[in-house]
Amino acid sequence: MPTKIEKDAVSGQDTTGHEWDGIKELNTPLPRWWLYTFYACILFAVVWSALYPSIPGIHGYFHGILHYSQRQELDKEVRAAAAEHADIRQRIASSSLDQVAADPEMSEYAVAGGKAIFANNCAVCHGAAGSGRPNFPVLADDKWLWGGKRADIYQTIQHGIRSLDDPTTRMSQMPRFGADKILNEQQIADVAAHVRTLARLDPPSDASKRGNAIFSEQCAVCHGQNGQGNRQFGAPSLTDGIWLYAGTKDAIEQQVTLPKQGVMPAWSKRLDDVEIKMVSLYVHGLGGGE
Ligand code: HEC
Ligand code: HEC
User: Fold this and answer.
1) Phi then psi for 8, rounded to 5 degrees?
2) What is the pTM of this model?
């Protein structure tokens, strides 16, 4: 088919010369705006490739005239942020817990940081926001085994509880009354019955009355005459309805026979002093701080 370029009568444009069954193809040029945008893009790409890291090579890449590097930018930002934090961390390091708590800027920073530290290190055992789990105490209520003042909480976190890798850890041991044959089965059942009356779970009975005497002799030294607990030994209150383990007759008998002894790691080797202060203030602020 011969190609013959001619003008289209209706649009006034050239045709390509292709024709099928009397239909001719117009040779419409690209719109100007499109063409110039296209050229601008090419120019932009060339300039960009020259200025910024672009063309890969075998042993590296072309770094660009500006030597821009996202890694360097990030480093700069991280250094700037660290410098900003260093200032406030320094102030927390040289202030007492009460001073940090009294200063709105430091305390806000400490509690926010303490929240993150808690989520990363403590929530596995103590639950989100210190809500507790079976065998691990709630930290958001005002019942404390060892004490709820800022300094108490700080000491507990720093040195742990029964954490044998720390010589100044909080230490106490409930005797193994059953396993070491200090009390026989009957006596254990009686004293457990008495504990349940202290907690107002059962009304007094003959067994609990016998248990009362055993309690005064064997248990009151740590748990208090009325079972109110004693923080010096981390001995829980037996009357408040809050159980580290459980309040069933079986669980109490088990605890008297062969006690569980909760272990809380010492954090002084894992967290620095500023971090321990921050997480102490966070825990203190969960609801039960004294
Ligand atoms: C491996 C589990 C575990 C982890 C992790 C842990 N704890 Fe504990 N924590 C315990 C146990 C168990 C006790 C109770 C010890 C006892 O029976 O006296 C405890 C007790 C405490 C107490 C004393 C509560 C009271 O009533 O006096 C505080 C405060 C505390 N933990 C804070 C923390 C903080 C803060 C962290 C994180 C830095 C943390 N714990 C991480 C297991 C853990
Ligand atoms: C030397 C101190 C000491 C003596 C004596 C002692 N306890 Fe304890 N008792 C503790 C401590 C400390 C705990 C907490 C254990 C832990 O934190 O894991 C505890 C825990 C308990 C619990 C668990 C409470 C809970 O919240 O789950 C019960 C129940 C209990 N004791 C009953 C008794 C009875 C009954 C006697 C006497 C026959 C007794 N204890 C004698 C120190 C003592």
Assistant:
1) -80, 130
2) 0.77
